[in-house]
Amino acid sequence: MPLPSKLSDFQLKWEQRDDPLCFSGVWRFHELLPFAPRQQLVSIGEGQTLLQVSANVGQYVGLDPGHLYLQYEGLNPSGSFKDNGMTAAFTHARMVGAKRAACASTGNTSASLALYSAASPDVRAVVFVGSGKIAYGKLSQALDHGGLTLQIAGDFDDAMRRVCEVAPELGMYLVNSVNPFRLEGQKTIMFRVLESMRWESPDWIVVPGGNLGNCSAFGKAFSELKHLGLIDRIPRLAVINAAGADTFYQLVEQRSLVWDIELSDFPMIDQYYSELDQNQQKASTIASAIEINRPVNLKKAIRALDVCDGVVRAVTDQEILDAKAQVGVGGLGCEPASAATVAGARLLRKEGVIGSRDRVVCILTGHLLKDPTATISYHSTDQQQFDEVLGSRGVRRAAFANRPVLVPNAREDIMRAVQLYT
Ligand code: F0G
Question: For 355-375, what is each residue's pLDDT tens digit?
Answer without folding.
Answer: 999 999 999 999 999 999 999
